[in-house]
UniProtKB/TrEMBL annotation:
This is ATP-dependent 6-phosphofructokinase. Pathway: Carbohydrate degradation; glycolysis; D-glyceraldehyde 3-phosphate and glycerone phosphate from D-glucose: step 3/4. GO terms for cellular component: 6-phosphofructokinase complex; membrane. The keyword Cell membrane does not apply. Its EC number is 2.7.1.11. Residues 403-784 are annotated as: C-terminal regulatory PFK domain 2. Belongs to the phosphofructokinase type A (PFKA) family. ATP-dependent PFK group I subfamily. Eukaryotic two domain clade 'E' sub-subfamily. Belongs to the phosphofructokinase type A (PFKA) family. ATP-dependent PFK group I subfamily. Eukaryotic two domain clade "E" sub-subfamily. PANTHER family: ATP-DEPENDENT 6-PHOSPHOFRUCTOKINASE, PHOSPHOFRUCTOKINASE. It catalyses: beta-D-fructose 6-phosphate + ATP = beta-D-fructose 1,6-bisphosphate + ADP + H(+). The keyword Transferase applies.
Length: 784
């Protein structure tokens, strides 16, 4: 199926006369509730009836009270809950034909012909089988007199849409399955806690994480905490790995490391498919090396706890997309899964994804491990390559005589240190000398520059803020001083890590190349700011951590409001003129609205919002949450909004105001920011190494082409380098934001889920079905 422009349909009428049932099946995962909530609310918005199916397929078979009509209010206060509120069960009955007959009969009696299944590949395969034999089941039911011919006719066809909820991230075709990011949050919390105690005692820690057939969690954890070794089922270690492992641990201690961390997926195996266990590794290390060794098996902790901001947004977007896919389905369209690729919602043929997922298992069984990693998708492969490069180290004997300087610019944010660490280590592996510049461009002008070595950046991935120190000042008048220091310290290329100032500063240096030949060196800007306002990248390092901080705070505030009742909170978030944080936090904390600069609002909008809240107070959900981005409007300030709501709400609700402030810049980096920072740091150095070779002429480096100074950004599905100068046209310099911002497309979802009826939903960008299996049988999907 090719991409197609969908005709403009009004989603508010599409569901009239239709019924949708939603169920969660198999193992639970954090974020399933967000998906259930979005499916119910979007379904109701389109005019459809939506039913909960309690206890997964078991509830579908048993029927009765297990299938209940859902209301708008019945999904309130569940966004922040882990697990699944409607229950899940491993169901044997549904695997039998008689079980499926009972399930079909229950659906027909209620007139439900659309089924939304949230679960792992087993659950989704079951759903597809149910759909394929639907007409056969109906015929049997009619023959047995269980349903009338008229009933059979009314429900002649069953539509199915799947969403993948599984913490293992083991489903091919989807970037991230619902629950994966939250599971990583739990694991990283534990790793951080364990590393502090291990450092006190100089211990070796072995940590077993979930993932029976998929090493995703183990691999990303290893990357995010800089583990010394990782065991994953897709890539078993070489023969006599025991010796290699011991050598590596000794080498790490020799470099001054006080602890060793080994991450093991529960499905870890050797080349002969014999399981490798926690105890086996522990005995090896303690007996052979005499190291004080401890092992921890994480178990179900990984499935628990509150969903991360990413999983809530993922679940909400998938739920909305699933309803659209169900209502647009025809008997001819294959059953599909809705999924996320980069930041785009996509629909994929369900059975193709299941097929590729099975192919991975087959490849592992047949010992084709390289294929197994390939089939997992491009990003799994990227993670693996980055991990191998950073962990399997023997810095080269031959030095390159190249000096690369690293500088942090702008406000600090979580994840900057991860990018610095990866850049330093990859640089050293490439044979370069790495230089640390302290305190931003000021430090570059004042000569606060010194070599930075391998051991200095140990443990930096988990540290928040900026260890190098950062300043907001631009090069400005100091350009001459800077160019002199570039010569004095013999700097051959520059990595600038920071926010909008990093981009502006980079542009200033490029513009000054005409005057100062010393500035003709390759440069790369890595976007790192909580505001996510750097042109050339959909995401910046630090935004995910800030988003989680805001979301957790909103959860606490909502909890307080739920107790006092009839209370509306107005919360101000950071972001300058960029409404990313306010919008995304609005989605992940279930806000009633988010005021931002990019979407101008007027007195009539404020009136509508007040009326909306007054109506809301008449329901059982007696609380409101309004977010406002710090520079949303110079006259309608947070104080003004507070005064307005307080006055208009008199007698119906009272108001409170919170300005979140600098806590949004602090905190330990989230797993996403650690991983993203690590990949950006290493990718930038590899790019610079190639650029330096291109620019080497007559015994010196001379780089003055536009493409020798780039922003490294995440665009849709991949990391790309774009010349600083080429991004000028897409930048609003006055308000320090890019002119096109992908996340503005998610604003209607925020409004729909908050029960505004008059939302214009742009359905022209409807996700067309995409194929996962190419002719070669390999996947063309990335995983972040």
């Amino acid at each position: 199926m090719a991409h197609h422009e969908a005709p403009h349909k009004d989603p508010r009428k599409m569901g009239i006369g239709r019924s949708i049932a939603v169920l969660t099946s198999g193992g639970d995962a954090q974020g399933m509730n967000a998906a259930v909530r979005a499916t119910v609310r979007m379904g109701i918005y389109t005019g459809a009836k939506v039913y909960f199916v309690h206890e997964g397929y078991q509830g579908l078979v048993d029927g009765g009270d297990n299938i209940k009509l859902a209301t708008w209010e019945s999904v309130s206060m569940m966004l922040h809950l882990g697990g699944t509120v409607i229950g899940s069960a491993r169901c044997m009955d549904f695997k039998e034909k008689w079980g499926r007959l009972k399930a079909a009969c229950n659906l027909v009696k209620l007139g439900i012909t659309n089924l939304c299944v949230i679960g792992g590949d087993g659950s989704l395969t079951g759903a597809n089988q149910f759909r394929t034999e639907w007409s056969e089941l109906l015929a049997d039911l009619t023959k047995g007199g269980k349903i009338s011919a008229e009933e059979a006719n009314r429900s002649s066809h069953l539509n199915i849409v799947g969403m993948v909820g599984s913490i293992d991230n083991d489903f091919c075709g989807t970037d991230m399955t619902i629950g994966t990011d939250s599971a990583l949050h739990r694991i990283i919390e534990v790793v951080d806690a364990i590393t502090t105690t291990a450092q006190s005692h100089q211990r070796t820690f072995i940590l077993e994480v979930m993932g029976r057939h998929c090493g995703y969690l183990a691999l990303v954890t290893a990357l995010a905490c800089g583990a010394d070794w990782v065991f994953i089922p897709e890539m078993p270690p070489e023969e006599n790995w025991e010796e290699h492992l011991c050598k590596r641990l000794i080498a790490q201690r020799g470099r001054g490391s006080r602890l060793n961390v080994i991450i093991l997926a529960e499905g870890a195996q050797d080349r002969n498919q014999k399981p490798i266990t926690c105890d086996q590794v522990k005995n090896l290390v303690s007996k052979k090396l005499g190291f004080d060794t401890r092992s921890t098996i994480l178990g179900h902790v990984q499935r628990g706890g509150t969903p991360s901001a990413f999983d809530r947004i993922l679940g909400s977007r998938m739920g909305v997309e699933a309803v659209m896919a169900l209502l647009e389905a025809t008997p001819e369209t294959p059953a599909c899964v809705v999924s996320l690729s980069g930041n785009m919602a996509v629909r994929l043929p369900l059975m193709e994804c299941v097929q590729v997922t099975k192919d991975v298992t087959v490849a592992m069984t047949e010992g084709r491990f390289e294929d197994a990693v390939k089939l997992r998708g491009k990003s799994f492969q990227n993670n693996w390559d980055t991990y191998k490069m950073l962990a399997h180290v023997t810095p080269p004997e031959m030095k390159s005589n190249i000096n690369i300087a690293i500088i942090n610019v702008g406000a600090p944010c979580a994840g900057m240190n991860a990018a610095v660490r990866a850049a330093v280590r990859v640089g050293i592996i490439q044979g370069h000398q790495m230089l640390a510049v302290h305190d931003g461009f000021d430090g570059l002008a004042n000569g606060q520059i010194e070599p930075i070595i391998w051991a200095q950046v140990g443990g930096w991935t988990g540290k928040g803020g900026s260890n190098l120190g950062t300043k907001r000042h631009l090069p400005g008048k100091n350009i001459e001083q800077i160019s002199l220091n570039i010569t004095k310290f013999n700097i051959h290329s520059l990595i600038i890590i920071g926010g909008f100032e990093a981009y502006l500063g980079g542009l200033e240096l490029v513009t000054a190349r005409e005057m100062y030949e010393e500035l003709c060196i390759p440069m790369v800007v890595i976007p790192a700011t909580v505001s996510n306002n750097v042109p050339g990248s959909d995401f910046s390092i630090g935004a995910d951590t800030a988003l989680n901080t805001i979301t957790m705070t909103c959860d606490r505030i909502k909890q307080s409001a739920a107790g006092t009742k009839r209370r509306v909170f107005i919360i101000e978030t950071m972001g300058g003129y960029c409404g990313y944080l306010a919008t995304m936090a609005g989605l992940s904390s279930g806000a009633d609205d988010a005021y931002i600069y990019e979407e101008p609002f007027h007195i009539r909008d404020l009136e509508l919002n007040v009326e909306h809240l007054i109506e809301k107070m008449k329901t059982s959900v007696k609380r409101g949450l309004i977010l406002r981005n710090s520079n949303a409007n110079e006259n309608y300030t947070t104080q003004f909004l507070y005064n307005l709501y307080s006055e208009e709400g008199k007698g119906t609700f009272d108001c409170r105001m919170n300005v979140l402030g600098h806590m949004q810049q602090g905190g330990t980096p989230s797993p996403f920011d650690r991983n993203f920072g690590t990949k950006m740091g290493s990718k930038s150095v590899l790019w610079l190494t190639n650029k330096l070779k291109e620019c080497y002429r007559h015994g010196r480096i001379f780089a003055n082409m536009p493409d020798s100074a780039c922003v490294l950004g995440m665009k849709k599905r991949s990391l790309v380098f774009q010349p600083l100068a080429s991004l000028k046209d897409d930048t609003d310099f006055e308000h320090r934001i890019p002119k096109t911002e992908w996340w503005l497309r998610l604003r209607p979802i925020l409004k729909i889920l908050a029960k505004y009826d008059t939302v214009e939903m742009d359905t022209s960008e409807v996700a067309a079905m995409e194929h996962v299996i190419k002719k070669t049988g390999l996947v063309k999907r990335d995983k972040m």
